[in-house]
């Protein structure tokens, strides 16, 4: 049985509240480091630990109580002026918050957490007694002694995997393997995230933590994706009121139906029917919007953990970095929050590692020693825009093209045809990396590609802008919700298809006399861009029955092209139905139109990568009258 049998509801409530409290504490600690004499911050952090301790005591999580109690006592001395914040003191405090979050991981699996690292508890007691600096000096002296059985650590390569796990609670790769062991520090697959390792700890936590004894059952349970959601009661009241109104309208329609069936078809009755149907249409739309809003959560719940991540990584790299967060109140679909976590962590990590220069480099070029990384969110129409920007060294498009050619990702001819924007987007290609060496932070060429893939899975897009010496900006566009997708309806003959509207730039007529052949491919010249024409029939491996009459200018992260279609049928907000048991390649899901017709929603990225038309077609083969169409 679970260690918390019969207390699951209380446990889940505690974890939701405690996670928010601890994330808030992390942010306040980063702010406190910049303003150590701020009594208001000290009081807030003290209350955070006190509240977590109280909930843990009610659940009988004694080891968590012990850890929080010691940390609470430390902050009591700080706020009373008996101690003063120092870098060594901040380090032990941040280590304590990481240990608290690690204990939350056990509680998520309904397991009583084991004791915290004895060395951490001892450092907390030394700190409370005002003797931490003496202990730190002793440890430093011991660290200078020759190491006979261990490799000297490399301060220039921070252990990102352990840092990620400690701060976010998400499992990452296990601790570094000793030199010569052949171990890898590459990030784990999704299947291994958050699972206990063979030592009895969670993957991604430091070795000292991973080797602590684990409670029984720990090896049998895994961390589950959070399914609970907190909803403002005002929104639930709105849903309830709308449901009541729909019930009344339904009763009115039932009565009118009875009148009509009994032969009462006078103008007044038909007018009343028309009014009732229109009212029902409005109410159902309002109910749909209200239900969608219950899924919306402030993105600040996601953003609040990133200042701590940026601070810790900058400290390990010897840089001075401030993470500025904006737009925390912007709301986003709950299902997106967890899927956005890792992509944003990677972009922030890259900004701190690659974007922001060392303090002396910044001073030499007239910049302040402290770099700034901005994480911002805002709603624009039916989309959410998330921006990750830094004021660092920026990226050179020419060097990116050269590196992509060097790695064999594109040909020299393709490189010469790319403009600045397309060149910057080469960083999203699998295997691309500007790093000359592999470290724990970067250099494997798997990062930005995964970021783009994860954003695409959310029906979003990501773009990059950069200026050498001024910084880099990543712009993510996401739909408000995954349940409804704005689409453009296109047709091949009588068959309709839906393509995501977020990828559509414009619709153009295709006139054969305006088509030019470049490199053996049919192209159109559109406002300075030479764009290939890819008939949808070719992408679907269908017979090209007629010359495409229209082209949909599609924009993917690193490539633009014109999708050749017969005609289009307008825009629609599609309610997506997934194909779980059988999903053909290039199909993201299905939707049902207002006339009852079932329409496939196309996955354009997958079609482009796997379709027969990705190489483009010649001008001659584009003309269906002259072409010998494939079977």
UniProtKB/TrEMBL annotation:
Function per UniProt: Involved in the transmission of sensory signals from the chemoreceptors to the flagellar motors. CheA is autophosphorylated; it can transfer its phosphate group to either CheB or CheY.
Phosphohistidine: residues carrying this PTM: 50
Keyword tags: Kinase, Phosphoprotein, Transferase, Two-component regulatory system
Domain CheW-like: from-to ranges: 484-613
GO cellular component, one term: cytoplasm
Region described as Disordered: 137-156, 169-205
Gene3D superfamilies xref list: Histidine kinase CheA-like, homodimeric domain (1.10.287.560), Histidine kinase-like ATPase, C-terminal domain (3.30.565.10), HPT domain (1.20.120.160), SH3 Domains (2.30.30.40)
An MF annotation (GO) of this entry: phosphorelay sensor kinase activity
EC number from the UniProt entry: 2.7.13.3
SUPFAM superfamilies in UniProt: ATPase domain of HSP90 chaperone/DNA topoisomerase II/histidine kinase, CheW-like, Histidine-containing phosphotransfer domain, HPT domain, Homodimeric domain of signal transducing histidine kinase
Record's compositionally biased regions (Low complexity): 169-189
HPt domain mapped to chain residues: 3-107
Record-given protein name: Chemotaxis protein CheA
Source species taxonomy: Bacteria, Pseudomonadati, Pseudomonadota, Hydrogenophilia, Hydrogenophilales
Bias-annotated ranges (Basic and acidic residues): 192-201
Catalyzed reactions per annotation: ATP + protein L-histidine = ADP + protein N-phospho-L-histidine
Annotated InterPro entries: Bact_Chemotaxis_CheA (IPR051315), CheA-like_dim (IPR004105), CheA-like_homodim_sf (IPR037006), CheW-like_dom_sf (IPR036061), CheW-lke_dom (IPR002545), HATPase_C_sf (IPR036890), HATPase_dom (IPR003594), His_kinase_dom (IPR005467)
Histidine kinase domain location: 241-482
One GO BP annotation of this record: chemotaxis
């Amino acid at each position: 049985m679970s260690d918390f049998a019969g207390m699951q509801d209380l446990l889940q409530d505690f974890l939701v509240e405690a996670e928010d409290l601890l994330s808030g504490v992390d942010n306040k600690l980063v702010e406190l480091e910049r303003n150590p004499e701020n009594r208001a911050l000290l009081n807030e952090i003290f209350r955070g630990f006190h509240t977590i301790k109280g909930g843990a005591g009610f659940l009988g999580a004694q080891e968590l109580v012990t850890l929080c109690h010691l940390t609470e006592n430390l902050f009591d001395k700080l706020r009373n002026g008996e101690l003063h914040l120092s870098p060594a003191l901040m380090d032990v405090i941040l280590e304590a918050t990481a240990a608290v979050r690690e204990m939350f991981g056990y509680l998520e699996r309904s397991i009583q957490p084991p004791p915290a690292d004895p060395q951490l508890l001892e450092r907390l007691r030394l700190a409370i007694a005002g003797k931490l600096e003496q202990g730190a000096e002793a440890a430093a002296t011991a660290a200078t002694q020759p190491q006979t059985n261990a490799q000297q650590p490399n301060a220039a390569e921070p252990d990102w995997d352990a840092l990620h796990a400690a701060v976010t609670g998400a499992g990452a790769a296990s601790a570094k393997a000793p030199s010569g062991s052949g171990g890898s520090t590459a990030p784990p697959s999704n299947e291994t995230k958050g699972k206990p390792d063979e030592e009895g700890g969670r993957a991604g936590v430091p070795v000292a933590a991973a080797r602590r004894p684990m409670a029984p059952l720990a090896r049998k349970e895994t961390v589950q994706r959070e399914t609970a959601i907190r909803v403002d009661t005002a929104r639930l009241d709105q849903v309830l009121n709308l449901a009541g109104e729909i019930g009344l309208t339904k009763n009115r329609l039932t009565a009118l139906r009875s009148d009509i069936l009994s032969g009462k078809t006078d103008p007044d009755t038909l007018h009343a029917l028309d009014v009732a149907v229109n009212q029902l249409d409005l109410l159902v739309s309002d109910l749909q919007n209200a239900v969608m809003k219950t899924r919306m959560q402030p993105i600040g719940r996601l953003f609040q953990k990133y200042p701590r991540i940026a601070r810790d990584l900058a400290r390990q790299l010897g840089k001075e970095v401030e993470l500025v967060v904006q737009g925390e109140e912007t709301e986003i679909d709950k299902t997106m929050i967890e899927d956005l976590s890792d992509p944003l962590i990677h972009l922030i990590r890259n900004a701190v590692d690659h974007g922001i220069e060392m303090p002396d480099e910044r001073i030499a070029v007239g910049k302040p020693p402290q770099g700034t990384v901005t994480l911002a969110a805002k709603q624009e129409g039916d989309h959410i825009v998330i921006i990750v920007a830094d004021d660092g060294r920026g990226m050179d498009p020419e060097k990116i093209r050269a590196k992509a050619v060097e790695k064999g990702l594109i040909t020299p001819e393709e490189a010469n045809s790319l403009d600045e924007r397309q060149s910057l987007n080469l960083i999203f290609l699998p295997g691309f990396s500007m790093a000359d060496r592999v470290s724990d932070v970067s250099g494997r060429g798997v990062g930005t590609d995964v970021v783009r893939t994860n954003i695409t899975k959310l029906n979003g897009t990501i773009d990059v802008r950069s200026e050498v010496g001024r910084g880099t900006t990543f712009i993510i566009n996401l739909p408000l919700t995954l349940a409804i997708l704005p689409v453009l309806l296109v047709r091949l003959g009588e068959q309709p298809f839906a393509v995501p509207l977020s990828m559509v730039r414009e619709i153009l007529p295709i006139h054969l006399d305006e088509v030019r052949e470049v490199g053996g491919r049919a192209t159109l010249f559109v406002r300075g861009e030479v764009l290939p024409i890819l008939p949808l029939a070719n992408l679907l491996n269908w017979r090209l029955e007629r010359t495409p009459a229209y082209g949909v200018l599609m924009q993917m992260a690193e490539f633009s092209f014109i999708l050749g279609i017969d005609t289009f049928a307008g825009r629609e907000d599609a309610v997506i139905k997934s194909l779980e048991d059988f999903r053909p390649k290039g199909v993201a899901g299905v939707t049902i139109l207002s006339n009852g017709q079932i329409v496939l929603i196309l996955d354009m990225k997958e079609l482009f990568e796997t379709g027969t038309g990705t190489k483009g077609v010649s001008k001659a083969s584009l003309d269906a009258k002259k072409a010998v169409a494939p079977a």
